[in-house]
Amino acid sequence: MITPGDVFVILVTSGSVLLIAWFFSRYLLAVFSNKRTRLDRVFGPVETVIYRIAGVNPYEEMGWKSYLKALLYLNAFEAIIAFLILMFQGSLPLNPMHFPDVSWSLSFNTALSFSSNTNLQHYNGGSTLSYLSQMASIQFLQFTSAATGLCVAVAVFRGIIGKTRGLGNFYVDYTRSIVRVLIPLSGIAALILVFLSVPQSLNGYAILHTLQAGASEVVKVGPIASLDAIMQLGTNGGGYFGTNAANPLANPNQVTNLFLLGLMMLLPTSVLFLFGRMAGSMKEGRTLIIASYSLYFIDIAIALIPVTQIAAGMEVRFGSASSVIWTVTSTSFTTGSMNGNLSAYDPLVILAAMFGMIIQATPGGIGVGAMYMLMYVIMAVFIVGLMAGRTPEYLGTKINASDVRLAVIAFLSHPIIILVPTVIAFAIGAQRAAGLGTGPIGFTEVFYEFTSAAANNGSDFLGSSGNTVFFNVSTGIVMWLGRFVPIAIMLAIAGNMVQRKRYASEALRTDSLTFTAVLIVAIFILAVLTFFPFLTLGPILSYLEGFKNGF
Amino acid sequence: MKRSGTITVPLRIALISLAICGLLFPGVVTGIAQLAMPVQANGSLISFHNTTIGSPLIAQEFNYSGFFQPRNDSASGLDPDITVQNASQQAMRIHNVTGISIAYLDGIIKEYTRYSLFFFGTTYVNVLYLNIKLADQFPSIYDKYVV
Fold first, then answer.
1. B113 at interface of A, judged by CB pairs closer than 8 A
2. A30-39, A158-167, A311-320, B18-27: which range is least confident on average?
3. What ipTM was estimated for this complex?
4. Which residues of A are less than 8 Å from B117 in CB distance?
């Protein structure tokens, strides 16, 4: 049931995010179209130094293959660096709590998880990772994967819009994402979070006598605020602690809760507005915004059907409404941070969470959400073209057979990398090592794990019980495939479209509300029907069983 | 561009990113936070009679039945708050154990009540604040139980 509290949370967060994102997208346009701005005096010299040290020629224009190659090499090196820091943290500095090295399979999983913007965590950060690992593995990859997401979005936009010769220069896009967008925003956000009581310290955990004599407690302070900021802004979602944004040190009150909620929505929303600005038509951007936000609101409505109350597994200071809204938002924007324990929620909330991760564009993760939305646009334009008996066109150019074929492959890669490993896990009984049964609840947990991994979301039921070699290696591979296969395919489509001839006439008005409605329906049918049998075995069955038992 | 650039350029960019995002950024934020907001930056620790006794942000153990007790089932396991309803139920037990009047207990619950949505939503209280208040106001009862 929707209460005034729910409406308040939804209106305040969505309203302010949409407003700020509209303005912020103007800044993003200047950043990625290399326009001169007043901030050049601050950022320009930093970038020049980086290009010089790294040997980057910032004027080189890249085709899709060079753009993709640079992106993959960079992400691979970054994952390797993070992997090594985790593996050898015991002998490295900034480890006042003397945590031992992380096992190879957990380091492998964690490095692939954070470099793919997933942030699935099979460990409990507060009792496993040194300060150096939290900073130089975790926060490091949270920045770089968010920057990679922004690069992918602008490169795909450039290709589909077709006003440039190539897709841009990956190193320039990446450097500007870090220097002009992510570092300044995260810096401001981190200091606001400290002001609101999130700790930021390298002094080691504080061990104190409690008020009642005879007991002691450990206050796990660390570089938490800086991690909180980029984990939300970059739609990463991997928290400092295993309990993520439910932990009172990472999310101490309702103000930080709503602030963090808004932070995770800001950049994916801004990027959708950026599309309209780059295309020179805010109405084309409006199509994407309305489609993704409608699906997001439908999702929230489904999750709020069950009567919500503070359950075991939710934090009192947030109340039940904002716990449920957080969960839906966190999966819709594929962030994956949690402010409650997933097993505390009604199966309908889990179902809503899975919709977000299946569609991946409601509005989805930073950069890639917009990319998936364009994948759906290409398929929707094709479907409408078939029905109207016309050649499909988008932004004044023809969508040809190979574009549609590639878009369909990108779309189908998602169910394949979720459903195949889910079936394998049960076929070899791997779920038993993680302490799971074979009923609908055990099934939901494993299915959710791979959905979350493939969608680069990172929320999960398993947590540190997923720290088995099978789940570490299998989800590690799924996360990288789920990240880079669709990116490669969408860059290929963009690369093929960038130099294609543009016409003045438009057969189909993709900036109309009619098309927007068709797009929403197409997304819903394509994505949900693909997964329907599996959803039935998991959360839907749980819900119906609960219904039969009168909850 | 030279061929060797395909390996060395991304490797160097990766190392520069490590320096900027993984070391410099958290380091600078820590420096500013420690200088400008040391209380929050170190976990908002509070004292009782000049002894630091913890942070109101996280729950601590109270097993003496004359204290308010935190819930032990929540998501983080550290939830420092209880609902007002739960606090009022505990007030009866505390009254029976300590003899402190229900009216007084209800009064301090009211004093520390917060709303989960600023002015509506669930009402809750912080357990540590309540217990510090009790220990401070009734030393004859609580002195033998506190640090």
1. no
2. A311-320
3. 0.94
4. 5, 8-9, 254, 319, 321-322
